[in-house]
């Protein structure tokens, strides 16, 4: 019986757990939308959601709850995030009635140069090891958010994660599976401190689903951060341990690189899509790719185009190709390259790009303009503060570099630099790499509407665009919008230096009907099968008329939305 149940759940998961009832034509979702008047927390782990909710009930605000939940996720989902990674956030502040953007991504080591890679005959930065390690920005991001908007002491905020790290918690099926797959991989590479950190504190074995997992090293790291603030991480013993360890492994990140780190408050950018303002952060992230896609797609009347139809996926894919060619050419750290954001998002440029879309699959070049595993979570509180937050190590657990007795792995975001001289995203010392993780927000008539995000590397701009269209064009509620079958397109140019060689491949979940697949093939598209890269959606919608929050969480993973 258990196998039969799991089989049904797997089928639902693969199909996106959304379908059109063959008789009524009505959409259905995995569950009803979660409702709450005083606050809402939606994260990728039920225990983290409950921590955030308790912070709200104890008088904390959305920022306090988000930091507490993110700290818990660094413990409970080490396969996707942690204090060794970066963070981005968009905050709605009800006092000023505006959005604030935070770029808490780290920079490349000052002691590493493009010449080093040339001298060592490298055409790509390695995926693992010390060379792709950039400064981890998440902890500084916590304190920037807390200093500007937080209310409770950081000792209170980090206390729940510290307690779980010391006393343990049961591993979920999904994270246990990720750990069983990931930790042996890093061990096979001979990386140090893997077994001690992920096995040594748990009887020398990797826990299975339902078994108790502990990380006392991380508890001590969190305790130091709570007591000593962000400087305890970037200027104290922790920074010294990180710098010495990486350089002993042949890398370049130093304690001085950590001491020099700072996050940046940035202005979110937006386009208006059929009366709704969709907001993303400017590069070095890829958020504006979603906005470029929406600008192109707004030129088509989707009231006359069926969801999941051949025409829907064709137009979507062609818009994606056009936006991603621009992504490869223009998106980079704006301290080093003058990204023409305003022109890329202009109506005139969208019209020019739209005119290139034909009836068949095409290949495109970037437009001529003058002038790269994750957690996503969102929280809202009784006063109207809302935060859209995304945080990641990249490539699942990260670089494989685990500093001794700190309890976390460092990210490998530096892999996403190009080593081709003269490009926007070419490696330079002290530069932020192109980034895949992006939070999103929607406002309507100057008021908050939806805080949302979708995990999944290159898929994220496609996921954002699909969610926006599901809500606005196809009238889905926020749970249906996330449960609907998804698709992505792979291939084309990348900010890492790859160029377009063919029309790429559309990969679909099986909820997309065969008639659509056949029609796309007739148009010259290549079709593949989805491989589980689409999970991770969370969302909170504010119903301004009834003053109620609507929460939704990803059905393909462990997530939970809860309100009160």
Architecture overview:
By secondary structure, this protein is of the alpha+beta class. The protein has two domains: 45-83 and 109-263 and 398-416, no CATH class; 266-374 and 435-563, 4-Layer Sandwich (Glutamine Phosphoribosylpyrophosphate, subunit 1, domain 1), CATH 3.60.20. Helices cover 36% and strands 17% of the residues. It has 19 helices and 21 strands. The protein has helices at 2-14, 46-57, 62-76, 114-119, 138-149, 154-167, 173-188, 194-198, 216-228, 230-234, 237-248, 255-259, 287-297, 310-330, 341-344, 347-354, 459-472, 478-483, 514-522; strands spanning 19-20, 27-28, 34-36, 40-43, 86-93, 98-104, 169-170, 212-213, 264-266, 269-273, 276-280, 374-380, 386-392, 440-444, 447-453, 487-490, 505-508, 526-529, 538-543, 548-553, 560-563. Strands 3-20-19-15-14-11-10 form a seven-stranded antiparallel β-sheet. A seven-stranded antiparallel β-sheet has the order 9-6-5-13-12-4-21. The protein has a three-stranded mixed β-sheet with strand order 16-17-18. A hairpin with a 2-residue loop joins β14 and β15. α6 (154-167) packs antiparallel against α9. The protein is globular and about 60 Å long. The chain starts with a helix and ends with a strand. Mean pLDDT is 93; it is low at 1-25.
